[in-house]
């Protein structure tokens, strides 16, 4: 996410501190009206700084999305009946491997879309891959067979996607948040690009490269 928001948060906090101190000075001079105005402005600025600080922390891990882009490269290889390995390579260079049960590779993501007022702070549509799982074609197997699900997103104490569900305070800034998923057959060696756009996820098959 952009560096604009933390900068605005720091500036707001500093201005809030200045107004708070000037309000205390006005109090010592018994200028009650001036004190009230300055302390009110200080509280507003500190509240804005706090909100922006929480937003900056909660959006860590989300990637800005301005066009269709590759969220991960995945290579799948069968590992037995109804089992396969999936090796992920992410844009930042991180790699991870998972052994999954099922016929298909399933990947989902969180997508956040901001309102225009938030765009002024440098916040734009953002995404984060959330989970990878094995998926069975047959519904009965999906309901009864062993399930394998792993987190793609790192755990953190504050996540904006979950904050938005719990608190309505973010409604003026966040336009919509939603989940998107894609799944592809994993019954042979294959490579895919997991791509994401403002409309959601898709998997694009690539020509398999020999090891």
Quote the beta fraction.
35-45%
- Indicate the overall shape: elongated
Overall mean pLDDT score? 79
Order of SSEs, N→C?
Answer: HHEEEEEHEHEHEEE
Main sheet record: 5 strands, antiparallel
Please identify the structural class as seen in this structure: alpha+beta
Tell me the number of structural domains.
2
Proportion in helices: 25-40%
Give the termini distance in whole angstroms. 35 Å
Q: What Rg do the Cα atoms give? A: 23 Å
What is the count of DSSP helices, taking H or I runs of 4+ residues?
5
Q: Low-confidence spans: pLDDT under 50, at least 5 residues?
A: none
What is the strand tally? 10
Protein name: Cation/multidrug efflux pump
Transmembrane segments: 6-27, 39-58
Keywords: Membrane, Transmembrane, Transmembrane helix
Organism: Candidatus Muproteobacteria bacterium RBG_16_65_34
Describe the structure.
This is Cation/multidrug efflux pump. This protein is α+β, with helices and mostly antiparallel strands. The chain has two domains: 4-58; 63-206, no CATH class. The chain contains five helices and ten strands, in the order ααβββββαβαβαβββ. The longest helix has 27 residues, at 32-58.
């Amino acid at each position: 996410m952009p560096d604009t928001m933390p900068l605005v948060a720091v500036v707001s906090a500093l201005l809030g501190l200045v107004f708070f101190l000037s309000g205390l000075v006005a109090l010592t001079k018994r200028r009650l009206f001036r004190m009230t105005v300055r302390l009110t402005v200080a509280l507003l600025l500190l509240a804005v700084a706090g909100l922006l600080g929480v937003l900056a922390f909660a959006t860590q891990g989300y990637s800005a999305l301005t066009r269709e882009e590759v969220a991960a490269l995945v290579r799948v290889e069968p590992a037995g009946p109804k089992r396969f390995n999936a090796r992920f390579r992410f844009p930042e260079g991180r790699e991870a491997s998972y052994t999954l049960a099922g016929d298909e590779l399933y990947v989902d993501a969180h997508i956040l879309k901001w309102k225009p007022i938030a765009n002024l702070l440098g916040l734009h549509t953002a995404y984060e891959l959330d989970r990878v799982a094995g998926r069975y074609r047959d519904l009965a197997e999906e309901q009864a067979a062993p399930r394998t699900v792993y987190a793609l997103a790192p755990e953190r104490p504050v996540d904006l996607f979950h904050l938005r569900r719990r608190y309505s305070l973010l409604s003026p800034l966040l336009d919509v948040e939603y989940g998107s998923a894609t799944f592809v057959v994993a019954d042979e060696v294959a490579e895919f690009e997991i791509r994401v756009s403002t409309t959601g996820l898709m998997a694009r098959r690539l020509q398999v490269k020999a090891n």
